[in-house]
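Is this the right way to post structure tokens for a design question? Let me know if I should format differently. Anyway, here goes:
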């Protein structure tokens, strides 16, 4: 379990973790740092699974890993927000993990980014890797900052931290997109797909401050940014306004998962409001065949 904790009279916020053992249903009482403490951390996302990586400098191998991403503030002298990551061998004993590293988009590296979601490929996949999606500020227009959803593969055989791929939404009425969550599907042959759910803002005047859920299928092993990904809308409006300064604190909790068996069943869930005043009042979930 990972979480953010305010410290030093709430001047600092750090990502921490606690250890749970399924077989004994035991939660260890001690908590440990999951980031370096030279910057703030918010909104962590975590997964555990097999990742192919040169973990100990002895050549590549597959390890059962804990993989973590989160929204960082002030990391590497960056005054704004961007994504940081950490990871360690799940077989190691508990202890502080201070080895945070940046997942910064080179095209927008001095623009704010945050609200990440990480997923490790299913156990049955031949390619053992982790991937994450996040919200990136890409520019500004007459309404304020422009945001988009990006995906980056890291850790393992698909490692390339310099390639951050956008989800390109072809609907003309969609303005900004953010609050994404990703789930990797079964690897069939040489192809690797993932399902992504996120929020998009409607740009039609009257409803410009409302958001609606959307989902897309993305191919991670052969990305083509010249064409739109298949994107569909889920029929619900999410109320609330978004402000850039609210990145660490304002999140409708979009969460996704894949159940792999004979076919990939995809689940997604989210809260009905972005703002906390008034707070969300219910959770909506949707599911179906990921294809």
């Amino acid at each position: 379990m990972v979480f953010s904790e305010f410290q030093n009279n709430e001047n600092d916020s750090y990502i921490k973790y606690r250890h749970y053992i399924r077989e004994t249903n035991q939660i260890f009482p001690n908590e440990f740092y999951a980031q370096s403490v030279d910057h703030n951390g918010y909104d962590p996302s975590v997964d555990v699974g097999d990742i192919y990586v040169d973990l100990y400098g002895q050549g590549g191998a597959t390890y059962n890993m804990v993989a973590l991403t989160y929204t960082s503030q002030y990391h590497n002298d960056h005054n704004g927000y961007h994504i940081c990551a950490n990871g360690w061998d799940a077989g190691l004993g508990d202890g502080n993990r201070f080895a945070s590293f940046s997942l910064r988009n080179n095209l927008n590296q001095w623009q704010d980014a945050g609200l990440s979601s990480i997923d490790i490929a299913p156990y049955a996949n031949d390619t053992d890797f982790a991937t994450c999606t996040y919200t990136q500020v890409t520019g500004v227009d007459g309404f304020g900052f422009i945001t988009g959803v990006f995906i980056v593969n890291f850790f393992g055989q698909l490692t390339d931290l310099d390639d951050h791929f956008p989800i390109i939404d072809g609907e003309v009425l969609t303005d900004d997109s953010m609050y994404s969550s990703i789930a990797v599907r079964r690897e069939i042959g040489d192809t690797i797909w993932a399902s992504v759910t996120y929020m998009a803002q409607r740009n039609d005047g009257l409803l410009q401050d409302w958001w609606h859920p959307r989902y897309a299928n993305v191919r991670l092993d052969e990305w083509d940014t010249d064409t739109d990904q298949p994107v569909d809308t889920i029929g619900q409006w999410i109320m609330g306004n978004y402000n850039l300064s609210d990145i660490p604190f304002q999140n409708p909790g979009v969460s996704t998962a894949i159940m792999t068996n004979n076919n990939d069943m995809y689940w997604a869930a989210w809260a009905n409001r972005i703002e906390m005043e008034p707070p969300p009042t219910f959770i909506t979930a949707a599911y179906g065949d990921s294809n």
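Format looks fine. Someone answered above. Worth noting: The CA atoms of residues 154 and 160 lie 6 Å apart. The chain is about 0% helix and 50% strand.
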